[in-house]
User: Fold these one by one.
Assistant:
Number 1:
Amino acid sequence: MRIDLLSVKPFEICSIRPPTENYSLTFRLTRNCYWNKCWFCPVYKFGTRYSKRGIEEVKEDIRRAKLIDNLLSEQGIGNNTYSYAGYSRVSELVERIKSANRDADNRDECDKEEISEDLDPGLVWFLPWFKDKATLEDSFNHILSWRMGGGKTCFMGDADSLIFKPDFITEAIDQIKINFPSIQRFTVYGRTRSAARLRTLEDLKAYRKAGLNRVHFGIESGSDAVLKLVNKGVTRDEHIEGGIKTREAGLSCSVYVMPGLGGVKWWQEHAYDTADVLTRISPDYIRLRSLQVFPQTPLDEAMHNGEFAEASEEQVVREIRIIVEEIDSDTEIMSDSASNLLNINGRLPDDRVAMLREIDQYLALSKRDKLLFSLESRLRSFAGQYGGLTRDISNALGPFIKNGGLDFSGISDTDIDDIIRLIRSKLMP
């Protein structure tokens, strides 16, 4: 039985998700973040306000996603042979659906998102990745990407799915399993405060029984002073309690920390207290996300009015060194963000010496060599993330291109720093 093209509609996608979920099928249980007050955070600031979605809304999205998946199968797109040529075929298929809707005089459900004239150009750059409304083509490409990634993982967002009682999570996961039986891992974002204060241990165990495998927590810092400074809305004790309860419930615990968040004033307390909290939680994964101050955030305002002094890249690396050296638990550190200068990856305690050696090799460089190292590292990160350089970055590098390559022998420290800041302002956090 062939699928009626007029019945195919877009569904809501979680554009903000962990990097390990880049190829996951995603469904929104909430829209945006109910806290949304962290000084450093540039996301969830556009589009619709926060709202909890009803289970029937979620089920409708699951039904729409399944219909798209069925249509891809019907058309032989993404089956067995996973090729990026499938995206071209998706575009052709989407045009056929749009044409059918135009012929039937049906209005497209997803209007183009409007960009505020007051939005800083630096944030406009990220809008294509932080979409609030998914188009039909977005929905098709999302399903195809999931297929190409193996079709085994699912992320349920947006910001804190632990606000839902176990019955809701169970019903959502059950419905996803029925429609997408190949999925083997379910993950969510959560707030440690929700795990500590809102959910009982029995609730968390019920999540695990329902099929939830992992919770991603953004703890950012273990210092109460820093958490208060950036208005995180949680304490170090709540970080510890929430993380421990999550692990006791049998859920994998993945946490994100933000070197640099203490700025110049609080950097040592930030590093040592964060290491202490991580030791107490003993999470399965620790993911490093070095601070990038984004325009039009409260932290950007605080920096410009003198309330916050940004840490240098060398200082951020020293913070990471303290964290690696001081953590006393069996855990894995991952540097899977383009915001990080160094790729520090390994399992503690086994790989501690090797990670410290890599950090110390950078710290032993001269000031000039540190700048050049940073420039080359940031260029690699940008090219790896986006597949090439933008016009403004290429123009900034123009005077230093010689014989088809880059020659930085005559570049000033100021020019290096300016180009680094330009590149960092465009790197996805």
Number 2:
Amino acid sequence: MGGIDFFLLWAGAAVSLAEIWAGGLLAPLGFASGLLVVIFGHLIGNTPLALGGLIGSRAGVSTMVGVRPSFGTRGSYFASLLNVIQLVGWTGVMLWIGGKAAQAVSDLPGIGFRGWVAVMGVVTTVWALAGHRFWKWLHRIAVSGLLLLSVLMTWILVSEFGWGSLFRSAPGGGMPFMLGLDLVIAMPISWLPLVSDYSRYSRGTWSAFWGTWIGYFIVSSWMYIVGLAASIVTRSPTPDSMVMELMVSWGFVLPALIIVLFSTFTTTFLDIYSATVSSINIWPHLDRSKGVIVCGALGTIVALLFPATAYEHFLTFIGSVFIPLFGIVLADYFFLRGDRYTRGSFEREAEGWYRRGINGWAFVSWTAGFLIYHMLQRFSQIGSSVPSLLAAAGLYLALMRVMRRPDAR
């Protein structure tokens, strides 16, 4: 995969109803301040995402295998298991959101919500089964079409309400600037547990880096701005649904349905595929195709049985595990190892000096970062993502340099 393939892969991940909805959360800031938050938040959050992908493109390993040098082989199982749980859960969330949106756009006789969920679950699973050689061509067609339809969606929104009403909107209050910034930063960082699963297929390190960075930055910022604008002008708590309804009212039923369906496919297949890859880190003999089918089926069942609101907070809690965790992984790779991993860095026997394959200092550092994350979320208005990531990374480097020699590995 080359730079354009990574651009389209992460642009496809960013074209999402969930990102439009997240942009609507920034409405209390007003449009001008919200726009600054979106741009600066993505500038900050996209950088660790793309840097995480460098590990996969240089070493040729998946994300969870890339956790082994810092946490130990068995220590990486902790991250892998939580990642499988959250990715199956997010598969359920995305299929549930897509099913509700598809039903609202086109309530076809005999299909309904459950029918849409089942159809999208099957197609998304098949998409994940296709593999990286086919994703190149699928995304060149599907994501290019999605981006063109997103231009139409944005044009309809602006034509309906105009730019003037947006820039004249006064901040509603109730959200500090830094807290809004944290909401944006957390979105690209949330993809860190997946990024190397795809960057390992790159033809070149920097093409993967810039394709990932630019693709996600442009399109995720765009979706956030659409959600922010829609929420401000309509006062709607669900700008994603409102935008689709607006397209339908203008007579663009089929384009709206295509956006709903294909944005679900191009985002959710990443969850299904990466849940399988994370499982393989724990159970190396697991067949990839069977794993994809099982993970896709589980995610579809979750969407059919439970509303997303029943477990979304639980998934967000699990997601907070990975922000300080990848602060440690990035610190280990770029500062402790000097951006160099050898084959032995990932092998079980190479980690023999860890206690039973677990680096306790990494877990101490992660625990500190995790606690800081939740303390800041509860008691502070400065945001929690970047401080917890930096705190875990800094403590890890300090402990490893005092307690262990970097060349001991």
Number 3:
Amino acid sequence: MKTHKLAVLFLLCLPLFGEDSMFRGDAQRSGAYRAAGVPQLHGVKWKFRTRGQVISSPTVVGDTLYVGSTDHMLYALDRDSGAVRWKFKTEGRVASSAAVANGITYFGSYDGNFYAVNTADGKLKWKFQTGGEHRFAAKHLHGSLPVAETMPDPFDVYLSSPVVADGSVYFGSGDGNVYALDAATGTQKWRFATGDVVHASPAFADGTVFIGSWDTNFYALNAASGKEKWRFKTGEDHDMHNQEGLQASPIVSDGVVYVGCRDSNFYALDANTGQKKWAFNNKGSWVVGSAAAQDGKIYAATSDSGLLYAFDAKSGASTELMSSKKWPMFASPAIAGNMLYIGSNEGKLFALDLANQKQVWVFSTEGSQKNGATYTKADGTPNYEAAFAGDFYDDMVTGVQSMLSVGAIMSSPVVVDNVVYFGSTDGNVYAVN
């Protein structure tokens, strides 16, 4: 597809929240919403408490919000009040963000099944069993001991969130495959095997599925056949497996695919050829969240360094917009009008005015208010020493959960009208306005 046609498609797919929606708002994962937004914070419109952590991102269609929790449930909530309309129970964590199309809600669970449920009442329409879910695993992971032990990565927190296009639903799996199913029946159309776990979410544009794998490759696949069009190789880390793997989901804008990587680079790739147009090195800090695009700018955040950047889409020239004082940002930014919203692992949601590049308000989760002081140093940076007792693998797992007790916002915000919706590891789904 020509560049101008992709631009038109991008504009047409900006989410209006009619009958269809999905992670990052549309098939290209733009993260841009046609909404008034919240230029001034008034408070909590409502909050809904689940019995687990809310890592998945909300999906809003009409007057209903759909969101998963690690309590094994997918919830359908009234968008105005937060009241439960229905809930659907799986046998595993729901860390996949739902896609809604043609009256069906699609999502994955850690029980190894991919589900399609009726959007109106939550009744199961069909389910598809993959080869099973598991997290990315490696020896000496992040420098943890024992060196020879294979360890699942506690930072591999998301499941692949589906994209629905042209009668098919596409998603990745921990079994290493990318799947295409018939959206109406769940019948497998094709599957494409990568070399490792696929927990990134696919983007779709011009008959192509774009997705990354923990095997360090980023793929462009023919959406009709599943045949590989091209692949792009990212960095490797054979010692600690810290600086490798594609956990972030791509965004397609104006003929270019933008994607972050745990090799600490943020890449701009030609959507037709996979040729690298530019790359930005974050000097050791991962890019886990997806980017957002608007008006020739690409917005992306980093993990350990806790920085939000604006990139010139064509040249890659960067401007640092915000620092979260080294609190990681796993969540993806959302844009509505001139406002950008992004959550941090500190349990804070930040709102920035893009016109003057200034932060205008901050919202703190319940978890942040309750436990933030315990895990925050006097200078506002994370107090990892209070959470991590040592370099044994078990200490890493315990430490990660301790840090998440501050109500981390790993859920990407969704903006509808004058409300921002997001989840938190304190178990709440929030609606703030």
Number 4:
Amino acid sequence: MGTKGRVGVWTSHAGVRARWRMRVVAPVVLVAAVAIPFSATAGSARVKSAAKPVVKVGMITPLTGPLASQPDVKDALLASIAAFNKRGGVGTNHARLQADVCDTRGDANGEVACARQMVDDGVVATLNDLTYNNPAGVVDILEKAGIPRVGVGPTALAEFQSSFSYPISAGIIATYLGVAAGFNQDSHTKICLIRTDAPTGATFKGFLTPSFKAIGVDIICDVSVATGATDYAPYIAEIQRENPDAVLISHTDSVATQLISAMAQLNAKIPMGGSAATFKMATLQKYRSITKGTVFSDSFPYPAQVNVKKFPGLKRYFADMKASGKKDLSAANLKPTAFPAWISTLAFVDVTKNLDSFTPATIIQALQSAKDIDLLGLTPLWTPSTPGFSVFKSSSNHYVYISRFDGKNIVTNKTPIDITQYFK
């Protein structure tokens, strides 16, 4: 039975499933036909390939809507799965990964509908989930089904404290602590928080303040920017009246672009910082006179070619994205939002490499027993069962890297910071 409105690579519609399989299988068959003359041997090889077991993994994310992920997130997951399938698949039986992507549209009902889709479609785990309007509802559905979430981007305590959540990133709070540490290194100790006007945003400053103080940074002002704003000059004026050393932008990349454009027009040169997803590279480069020195933080090195020498594991990421042939995943167009889907797939494949049977229960067992997983040196060795910090019980990765925009590229410092020291 199909479900109206689903957006996915696999759905329960037989016709859609058949078309998806044709898109994946047809190029493989074509390559095989070109490489090897048709014979009984070639036919046998195709039969063996088709007989490989399928491991279905899902992703719940807002591909459309007012606070949507970039469309390249879906393409990045498909490219990642294709690359790992080509390298031998997953588990001891070299099973073939299959993706089930559901667009929540950034809607509370859409999020729980996607969670139900994961259960109905029989996924054994989800990768790189992002839910922010009804995360507790999603947790409730997936926990009852026993489905683990690898690489989930937690946005609420329900996700951080769920025993089925296995984030690889230390999370957005850790990201902002890394930015604060970068500000402190640059002697910017009085900062202004620029955030969304969402109801939950009103408590954000109070939540960050104790840890920021432990770093040596004070949040002296809190500016709420409406998502649909058209005039940004009043926000810039408000910030200037407070005279901060720097601003932490916690908003969408489109709002950040408008803020930076207004700052340039008003000649307001205020140092900035935020997550990698908040700033478009084109915006940073266009307004480099005011964006140079912008501080970034994440649990992984910023995925740019300039950082490959210090972090060679990025080579495989770039190669896997390029191999997809997708324009949005080409070196010229690749955005940092694509990276989490790839490293979540890498983590899933590494954690389950010794499994011969894939069920939610066997995957959870593998996650709980795995130790010192090497994610190609792109984060310190990862043990998924490591206890989290503060209220973030599931955050087993406690490290972030600091990066800065040098006027041309975003360059990452090779030494990560353990953010648990800032939670007392």
